[in-house]
Amino acid sequence: VALAGVLVQEPHILILDEPTVGLDGPGKQEILREIGQLRHSGKTLVIVSHAIEDFLDFVDRLIVLEEGRVFTTGPPSQVFPSLLQVGKFPFLVPSVFRLCHDLRAEGWDIPEPTFRVEEALYLLDRHLGRSPAGGRKIPVGEHLN
C-alpha cells in the first residue's frame, strides 16, 4: 500500500529499503515483479538489501558499505569475486556464485559469472558428463523454462 502511494506521484528515482523482508513467497514474487516493471519503465531504483540474490536481475551496480563508508562498488561480476578474495561479507555473495567460484579454483571449467541455479546445474551436469536439461543446450545467462 505504501509503495502504491509513492508510485502515484511518479517519482524518477525510487529508494526501496529491504523491500522483500518479511514477505511470504507469493508476496516476494509480486514485489520482485513490480520492481522489474519499474526498472523496465526506466525508473532509477536504489535498493537497500542484504538479500542481493533476489535483485541480481535488476542491478547494474552494487555498493557495499562498511561502517557507513563505501567498501567496494561495481557490477556484481566484479564485486562478488572481490568480496571472496578479501574474505569479507561472505553472506552477501550468492551461494551459487560461491560454489562455482570454488569449483573454478579446483580446476573445473565453469565460466564467470554464474549467478543462477539453472546455469550452475547446467554447467555441473555438463562437467560431470551428463545430458543437462533433457539434452537441450542452454547458453550461460539464459534461463531454463
Provide a quick synopsis of the model:
The protein is an alpha+beta fold.
Fold blueprint:
Layout lengths: L1 H6 L5 E5 L7 H16 L3 E5 L13 E5 L2 E6 L1 H11 L8 H11 L11 H11 L18
Give a verbal description of the structure.
This protein has a two-stranded parallel sheet. A two-stranded antiparallel sheet has the order 3-4. Helix content is 38%, strand content 14%. It is globular, with a radius of gyration of 17 Å. It starts with a helix and ends in an 18-residue tail after the last helix. The chain has 145 residues and is of the alpha+beta class.
Which regions are unreliable across 5 or more consecutive residues at pLDDT < 50? none
Principal-axes shape call: globular
Secondary structure: number of strands: 4
- Biggest sheet statistics: 2 strands, parallel
Rg over CA atoms: 17 Å
Give the assembly state of these chains.
Answer: single chain
Separation of the first and last Cα atoms: 32 Å
The chain-level mean pLDDT equals 83
Structural class, by secondary structure, is alpha+beta
Largest beta sheet: strand ordering: 1-2
Helix count, DSSP H or I runs of 4 or more residues:
5
Fraction of residues in H or I helices: 25-40%
**SSE pattern, N- to C-terminal:** HEHEEEHHH
DSSP strand content: 5-15%
